[in-house]
């Protein structure tokens, strides 16, 4: 099998149900999820397996779920058996609650940074927010799996939580925004 097909040379790509322009909102939505997935791989590569084995295991599961989410969005506008479920959202909430207990209480806004792994996890967070915005736009135009939007919303919170944990476990404090007072009490 060749890696190139030349079928996209005219600016269109194949999706479930036909061909669309490469800048179609559906392609934009699942393409942004693909970007998140690539940075999740980068985060896994930067995490210390001896210190962050649980985070690595979670992230490897999330990589598969992101692929599933992209597949669900490639079916937008069609009634299919979707793979992203409410149970996945609930599990993310459980993980967030568990990891949040490991980090100190937040008093100020947190800036991306600290350890290299934490910085990449913050990139995952902001890209996930962008993917969520793309899915919201798509859902206005076509039927989608609503659980994908909910999943992405929780996933960005999960990335925030574990970015902090990645720093804590390495003995690195949060990078706080210092140009304002305490906003969380």
From TrEMBL:
SUPFAM superfamilies: Cobalamin adenosyltransferase-like. Signal peptide: none annotated. Its EC number is 2.5.1.17. It is an enzyme of class 2 (transferase). Pathway: Cofactor biosynthesis; adenosylcobalamin biosynthesis; adenosylcobalamin from cob(II)yrinate a,c-diamide: step 2/7. Residues 3-166 form the Cobalamin adenosyltransferase-like domain. It catalyses: 2 cob(II)yrinate a,c diamide + reduced [electron-transfer flavoprotein] + 2 ATP = 2 adenosylcob(III)yrinate a,c-diamide + 2 triphosphate + oxidized [electron-transfer flavoprotein] + 3 H(+); 2 cob(II)alamin + reduced [electron-transfer flavoprotein] + 2 ATP = 2 adenosylcob(III)alamin + 2 triphosphate + oxidized [electron-transfer flavoprotein] + 3 H(+). It comes from the Bacteria. The keyword Transferase applies. InterPro entries: CblAdoTrfase-like, CblAdoTrfase-like_sf, PduO-typ. The keyword Transferase applies. Keywords: ATP-binding, Cobalamin biosynthesis, Nucleotide-binding, Transferase. Belongs to the Cob(I)alamin adenosyltransferase family. NCBIfam families: PduO_Nterm. This is Corrinoid adenosyltransferase. It comes from Kroppenstedtia guangzhouensis.
């Amino acid at each position: 099998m060749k890696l190139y097909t030349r079928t996209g040379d005219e600016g269109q790509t194949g999706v479930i149900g036909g061909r669309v322009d490469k800048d179609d909102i559906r392609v934009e939505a699942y393409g942004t999820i693909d970007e998140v997935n690539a940075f999740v791989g980068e985060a896994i590569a930067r995490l210390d397996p001896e210190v962050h084995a649980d985070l690595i295991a979670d992230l490897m599961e999330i990589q598969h779920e992101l692929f599933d989410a992209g597949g669900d969005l490639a079916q937008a506008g069609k009634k299919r058996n979707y793979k992203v479920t409410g149970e996945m959202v609930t599990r993310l909430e459980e993980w967030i609650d568990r990891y949040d207990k490991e980090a100190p209480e937040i008093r100020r806004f947190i800036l991306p940074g600290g350890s290299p792994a934490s910085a990449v996890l913050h990139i995952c967070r902001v890209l996930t927010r962008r993917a969520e915005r793309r899915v919201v736009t798509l859902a206005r135009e076509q039927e989608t799996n609503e659980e994908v939007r909910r999943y992405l919303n929780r996933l960005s919170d999960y990335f925030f939580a574990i970015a902090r944990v990645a720093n804590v476990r390495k003995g690195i404090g949060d990078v706080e925004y210092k140009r304002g007072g305490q906003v969380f009490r």
